[in-house]
Amino acid sequence: MVRHGETVDNANQVMQGQTQGRLNDVGIRQAQQLRDKMAAVPIDAFVASDLKRSADTARILAEPHGLGVDTTPLLRERDWGAFTGRYIPDLKGVAWSDDIESLDALMARAGAFLDFVRKNYAGKTVLAVGHGIINKAIQAVYYGKQMREVERMTNCEVRILEL
């Protein structure tokens, strides 16, 4: 499991949510460095969020393997509703709006992604590129932990889950 490379909005501390996002130069370099580091690692399939920033990261990582990238909305970032597009430091102490994806819905989607991988990629090594919060939720479901117990992933960080 990988978090996408840094985006323009990451660098500017803007809440991206389910917007497409665009890798910045740093994010492209992060993905290229990880690609080079993982070029010899046997990977059978690449799966990414259908949002541009994750799909672009996955395509860079897949280059030396000669594989395409399957996308799924199950790996999309949390839907931040009215918080989307806002400057993150300005959101401290602001009451959450009703249109933010609930924690229950997020965790259900995380579990559905794990089931999706088990069903569609049984016995295969899969590199999945997602986003900070959904990746955290997937790990929380996988390990049977609370979200707050899972450490935040940095851009292009890798975590290994064995299904």
Note the topology.
Elements: E1 2-3, H1 8-11, H2 25-38, E2 45-49, H3 52-62, E3 69-72, H4 103-120, E4 126-130, H5 132-143
Quick recap of the structure?
This protein has 163 residues and is α/β, with parallel strands linked by helices. It contains 5 helices and 4 strands, in the order E-H-H-E-H-E-H-E-H.
Task: Profile the largest sheet.
Answer: 4 strands, parallel
Helix content: 25-40%
- What is the global morphology? globular
Mean of residue pLDDT values: 98
Beta-strand segment tally: 4
Poorly predicted spans: none
**Could you state the order of secondary-structure elements as H and E?**
EHHEHEHEH
**CA-based gyration radius:** 15 Å
SS class: alpha/beta
Major sheet: arrangement of strands:
1-4-2-3
Number of helices: 5
Tell me what the structure shows.
Helix 3 links the parallel strand 2 and strand 3. This protein has helices at residues 8-11, 25-38, 52-62, 103-120, 132-143; strands spanning 2-3, 45-49, 69-72, 126-130. With 163 residues, it is an alpha/beta fold. Strands 1-4-2-3 form a 4-stranded parallel beta sheet. Helix 2 (25-38) runs parallel beside helix 3 (52-62) and helix 4 packs across helix 5. The N and C termini lie close together (12 Å). It is built from 5 helices and 4 strands. The mean pLDDT is 98.
Key traits:
163 residues, alpha/beta, four-stranded parallel sheet, 36% helix, 10% strand
